[in-house]
Amino acid sequence: MRTTAIILILLIFSLNSFSQCLEQNKISYGGNWNNYNYTYFCPIYTFSFGGDTSKTWNILNPIDINKISSQILPIKKEVERQILSYSGKEFLQDLNFLSVEIVYPDSINKFSCRRPQYNIDRCKAKYFFYYNYSPIENANYHIGIALNDSLEIVNELILPSKKEFRQIDKELTICKLINLSKRYKNQIEPIEKIKFEYDVKTKRFVWILSQGLIDKKEGINKYNEMIINASDSEKIEFRVSNVIITY
Prior knowledge:
The structure is a single chain. With 247 residues, the protein is α/β, with parallel strands linked by helices. Helix content is 23%, strand content 30%. It has five helices and eleven strands. The protein has helices at residues 2-22, 69-87, 89-92, 174-181, 185-188; strands at residues 27-28, 30-32, 44-48, 63-64, 95-103, 127-133, 141-147, 191-199, 204-211, 219-229, 236-245. It has a six-stranded mixed β-sheet, with no helix packed on it. A five-stranded mixed β-sheet has the order 1-8-9-10-11, covered by helices on one side. α1 crosses α4. The longest helix has 21 residues, at 2-22. The N and C termini lie far apart (59 Å).
C-alpha cells in the first residue's frame, strides 16, 4: 500500500514537472518568412498539401497543391535541390514545407474582398515558399523563399552552409533548457519567452531564453537573455537587451 502511494506521488510529481517544463505559452518561433516585400501586396492563391479540394479556388484558405502539381512540384523540387546543395542533407531532412503562394496579376479583381491595397508594382516575386525548420519538437525556425518569373531566388536566405552547419542536439528539450536555466536563475528568471533562432554572427542555431520584466517602468527597460548553443549546451552566453514601454 505504501509503495503504491509513493508511486502515485511520484507520478503526480512527474506529470506536474512535465507540464511546467513545457511552458507552451512561452515558446515562440525564430526566423522570419518576410513575404511583405515580395507577395504581401499581390493577388495570390495559396497552395498546400491537404488544402481545399473544391473546384472553386478559395482566396482565403489554402488550396490543395495537387491541383497544380505539374506546375509547382517541379519548382518546389528545384528549390529544395538548391537548399540541399547549400545547406546539406542533415539540414534539409528537418525542413518542412508548409505552403506556397503564387501571384496571379490578371486575377486582381477577384481579390478585392481580401486586401484592398494591392499594388502590382510591389510584387517582387512570382512564387513564395513557406518552410519551417524543426529539428526537435518546439524548435521552429521560419524560412521564406521568394522566386521571380525566371525561378531565381530573389530574397536573402539566412541559412547555414554545409561548412557552418552543426547537428542540433535533439536531446536538448524545453524541459532541459528550463532546468539548465535554473543554474542561472538570478540572471534569467522569470522566463518570459523561449525561442529557437539562427545567429547570423556565429553561424549557429541557438536557443534564446528571455527574462520577463519584474519592475516595469515607462521608458527603457533592461532584461537579460540567455543564449544556449543548440548543438552544444555547454556553450552559454548572456546579453542585456532593451525594451521601451510607453503609457
